[in-house]
């Protein structure tokens, strides 16, 4: 599975302050992801991408740089990030699930002012790909250049936006499409993906293919940002997603942070902290995995929820569909996310083992899962 990061701030920030310099930056996560449990393919080294918005006089479209070179080995990323500032940044490091290694498969994907990235995978994608493609208007069908399920999800999002009366090709104006419009289009995208899977293969999947999808999306129009943490299951946890907000993002001045940085960091890397001087949020970060070792800096986004950033305000809404539970004590298993190389987010989450029919497993299986997840999460703490 991939890792992604979103920054939205009142002021511009140097890209290197997010992508390169923090001890657990998105670049570090490309080779040292602490919340990935996939020991067979532990690296996010199948390409990377950064997207950011520049001066409005240059147009509303974001600037995007992608490469199939592993992020840790790309000198051009260092050169660009250390000399570029932006108030809205997307960054993504890729571990392939669908599609080969090519620039056209690297996130983020863009169209006009819109930018999109994905962590996860569409269930039974090969089986539903034709149905999904045929459902698109010609303009969005021909837009797809690569072979990854994520780009097809972006095309589907554009189709949903268009069919809701908000043409992606039109200039949305100074305020963008609006966070409500973006959120509704993302929810419709998820709904249509679930519908294709039910129509083509049913809930049980096709043979060895699993029909469950992990759909952690991030989309922006340059003004608002909408992210999802979603799994098409009532019994499973989604892939990890966190957010952090505050008034400044800066190098940690604590003695403990300095010691940790000296012990764990690559040359030039430092520990950072999100500071909060008042109740306002000048900065909002969203990430598959925390960029800092300050546990109280980060809040877990609930499974099957959307996170919306509008004028630095963070809003979280549940995704209410057939996989929704209104019970706040509803327990979910980490087994599916773990099988995909992910883990649940936060030590407060209970982990359930499951038998094949979805029933709770025995206590030994439960303890095994708890230990695996606790160990991975424990790596995020600085002792």
Automatic annotation (TrEMBL):
SUPFAM superfamilies: N-terminal nucleophile aminohydrolases (Ntn hydrolases). The keyword Hydrolase applies. Pfam families: GATase_4. InterPro entries: EgtC-like (IPR026869), Gamma-glu_amide_hydrolase (IPR052373), GATase_2_dom (IPR017932), Ntn_hydrolases_N (IPR029055). Keywords: Glutamine amidotransferase, Hydrolase. GO terms for molecular function: omega peptidase activity. Residues 247-268 are annotated as: Disordered. GO terms for cellular component: cytoplasm; glutathione hydrolase complex. CDD domains: YafJ. It comes from the Eukaryota. Residues 2-383 form the Glutamine amidotransferase type-2 domain. This is Nucleophile aminohydrolase.
